[in-house]
Structure formats: structure tokens, C-alpha cells
Structure prediction request, 348 residues.
Amino acid sequence: MKLLCDLSYNELSELLKEYGQPVFRAKQVFGHIVHGKELDEMSNIPKDLIKRLKDDGWRALGLSVEQSFKSAIDGTVKYLYALSDGNIIEGVLMRYKYGNTLCVSTQVGCAMGCRFCASTLGGLVRNLTAGEILSQVLVVNALNEDKQHRGVTNVVLMGSGEPLDNYDNVTKFLNLLSAEEGLNISKRNVSLSTCGLCEKMIRLADEGFTPVLTVSLHAPFDNLRRRIMPIANKYTVAQVIGAAKYYFEKTGRRVIFEYSMIEGENDTEECAKELSRLLKGFSCHVNLIHLNYVKERGLKGSGDSAIDKFRKILDNNNISCTVRRSMGSDIQGACGQLRRKYIEDKSK
Ligand code: SAH
Prediction:
């Protein structure tokens, strides 16, 4: 399957030129794609062009919304998308005062194997293309926009998958997302979360990409980190923090460390003190996250008092830190859980 949304405006112009189309056609077709329209919905485009594109295996978008679930508590919406090969991925739209943030997936499944995460349970199925990642934003934006407001104002690459393990597609996606002729979402409004692939963090900065970098650290000691994140066998905590510092120096953007609190594992006083020592003097921010329960994993999240105690130690050491607000708790918890449940239910 070939996707028009994988193409930049210039690439689409070239393609339509090959189909003998006038110059203005690219603008029309691109406009439809930006508003989440499939080929059959492009009313002012000649029918014979649509037919030829379809006969040649082209589609406009990489996916469609299969199901959605809205939280009665805070308006958060979870989406299940069907890809053209039948795979299912998920996304979450969170509503804040300043706008709507969409969490997008970058891979079907994930190869990283973190012990607390549901997305990685079946391993990596495949990478998503740039257009498939963009399509998540296009369809959700279209469902939520009105004349005055965009449906999606901020994007976080925190759904299933390790974005830096799919580097080429993800960086192409970042360019498509901020393209002036496209959705034109400001580069300032995009965050990328990684489990800490150091060379790729450095490459991202060197190549001039500047999303807010969110680094899933989850442990200040190498032996502990190796127990919960297999990637820690490849990179030490010192290397991960070193790459984060490099990113900050090169891009000027403050790095955020994510730390999901697991009872009796990484929530001890010793961990809080070591984390403070490691981050001292680095202008960064720590997000403490309530662990979402994943039944196959059996790990238990830390209680509020343990989290609060941990936060106070960071506070006392002048490490900027917040406990992340959990959203949409009534519509399935952890990343990846919804997709898994859907697949299980279907196979019954
Ligand atoms: N692969 C990327 C992005 C995906 S996960 C990464 O590792 O950063 C986004 C965030 O959710 C990561 O910080 C991840 O560690 C965290 N996460 C995964 N499973 C979780 C769970 N069950 N509870 C809380 N946080 C979880």
C-alpha cells in the first residue's frame, strides 16, 4: 500500500505532475489530506484521477479509527486505529486548558522489553511509516477541530514503540508535522519519549531536531535499571544522562526524566538520594509517574505516601520535580493495554 500522507508537499506535487495534473491540484489534494480525508471523500478532485491513484495502489491515509472511548471524568479519549494491513494501534487525546495533546504510537509493539510496559509484551511487530504516524494526528485532529480551533495542538511520541528505534520514519514524521503547508504544528509543541538510545539522542540534536526530549530513566543504579529495562545492558545510567546533557547543550531544550514508581524496586530513599546526586546542577525536570498496573507483569505501583516521600527528597535537593497527573483512568490504564484487550476479545 502506498500512502499519499507519506509524501511531503513537494513530493506530492511531483507525483501529481506525473499524472498530468495542473499545478493547483497538489494544493487541493494536500488540503484534503491535512483535514483527514480519504481519496473517496475528496469531492472537488476529478473522479478519473481518484480512480487512477487507487488503481495504482495509493491511499490518502494510513489508518482509520476503529473504536473510541471517552473518559467521563476528564474528557480524555482513547482511540483504536486499524492500519491497512489489519494491525491495531492506539492513541490518547488529553484535553488541557491550553489545548489538546495527542499521544501517538511509532511502532506496532516494541522490541525494548521493559518489565512494566504492556506495549512490548508481544515484541516488535513492525515499524510505522512517517505517514502512518502522521495519520494518527490527521484523523484525530479532523474529529476534534472546529472553525476556530485545531483539534490537536500538541503531540507526544509516547504511545507504543520506541521512537528512536524507528529513527528515519520518526524524523520524517517530525518534518511533516511542522510543515507550513501541512498541519503546521509548532516544533515547540512536540515531545519525544525514549528509553535512552544514546547515539540516537545525540544524532537527533546534531541533525537539528528539537522536540522536548523525555527520557525514561526509572532507576539511578545500573543493576536496578537492568532488572527493569533490558536496554540498560547496552547503556549505563551515566551514558544516558550524558546524552541528555548533550541534547540540552545542543538544543537549549530542557530534558525531562520519567520515573515510573514501582513498589519496593525503585521507590526507596536510597534511589531518591542517588537520583538527586546524579542530576544535581543539570537544568532538567523529573516526572514521577504512578505505575499503571499491567496484569501480565505483576509489578505493583508505589503508594501515594512513598511517591510523596520520594518527591520531597528531590525537592530538598533542588531537583525540579512533579508527580504526573493521571488522566482517563476509567477508560483503561497503561499504554498498550487497550490494544491488547481488543486483540484478546477478538480472538475469543
Ligand atoms: N519507548 C518510549 C516511549 C513509550 S512509553 C520510552 O520508553 O520512553 C512512554 C512512557 O510510559 C515511558 O516513560 C514508559 O516507561 C512509561 N510506561 C510504560 N509502561 C508503563 C506503566 N505500566 N506504568 C507507568 N508508566 C509506564
The chain is about 35% helix and 20% strand. The longest helix spans residues 130-144. The mean pLDDT is 93.
